[in-house]
Amino acid sequence: MKILVVNAGSSSLKYQLFDMGQGAVLAKGNCERIGIDGRITHKRPGKEDFSAAPAFPDHRAAIGYVLGLLTAPAHGVIESVEEIAAVGHRFAHGGEKLRESAVLGDEELEYLESIVGLNPLHGPPAISGFKACRAEMPNVKHVGVFDTSYYATLPDYAYIYPLPYELYEEKKIRRYGFHGTSHRYVAGKAQELLGDPNAKIVTCHLGNGSSITATVNGKAVDTSMGFTPQDGVPMGTRSGALDPTVVTYLMKTCKLSAEETEKVLNEKSGLLGISGVSSDCRDVEEAANAGNKRAELAMRILVHNVKKLIGAYYAEMNGIDALVFTAGIGENDRALRADVCRDLSALGVEIDEEVNATCPRGEICDLSKKGARAKTFVIPTNEEYMIALDTLSLALGK
Ligand code: ADP
What is the pLDDT of residues 330-359, one digit of tens each? Predict the structure, then answer.
């Protein structure tokens, strides 16, 4: 059974074709510069990568090209498009109605179009990607998997902001949470590793964008991202949580426009803003190790904020059975993991520094010190596989 997973951005379309029987990726790639000129990189395990620069005036042209490539004798992995049993689409936002993954019909499409205001950056391209795929593959089911839906279980006191209640009721201003597909995947793996479906788990997805989620009994109970993916810990270029008056101060006193303010908060803050070096954690750490004080400060601020949320979620859940690190920084940055876990023994978190330092990349790794009350795991995330699994079960009832 073959499932195609599509993740469409404003000028990009990433894809992965899974063979679900083997749980293997047959091919994956990325179409870039859609609407500009066009570029594609196409990869198949064990084979040479293929790149080209075809014209991609829109998402439909890109997906059409991808389907051609997947079936082409030279670069393909299937004989015909008919072999693709269903298509899974990643959506950042499912609003309040799409509380779980769903087969996408006209009603769902209409709802997704009605909430683009909540998600102006990612909503429109994801919708165009879906429409393009549906036009090219009208005979299969298309499933939407929403980053927000993992947070449908948040209690109201965790998702309602302490603002006038009408702003929630009328404007839908609330905590939605993001990266849910990744947190769901790694929390599920941690649950399996612990052999305890009721486990209290804190998952740290630390990448270019970062978020932390608390899960009990397989259900999310709190998360650091909020109304938008701007909230929570500092990220590559995003500030994370701030005193909200900083925003109005920037506008009123520093005379920035709304757009300029957004640019500061989204594109000029976080690791980049503090260090002045880069948004990429590797560059910032390298500079810190070479004695750059602001780079060192940026890393300290990140670690401080991650620890603070782990503590908060410990308090909310009255314990932690497992702490999980995932995504680019969480999976690869041993020094950061060691810094976050330092002095967390009061919460039961203690890691074996030797194991942490030698933990092989790309694999699940148990970092816990012998006898630690809580387990600490590195679990590589796999959002695409999670989307493929949901697609398989919804489209085909498996
Ligand atoms: P995205 O949110 O774009 O999917 P990723 O999850 O790929 O991002 O994470 C990107 C981040 O991971 C970057 O800040 C990068 O520096 C960091 N990263 C990747 N490898 C390492 C490493 N070996 N050490 C430290 N940071 C790393």
Answer: 999 999 999 999 999 999 999 999 999 999
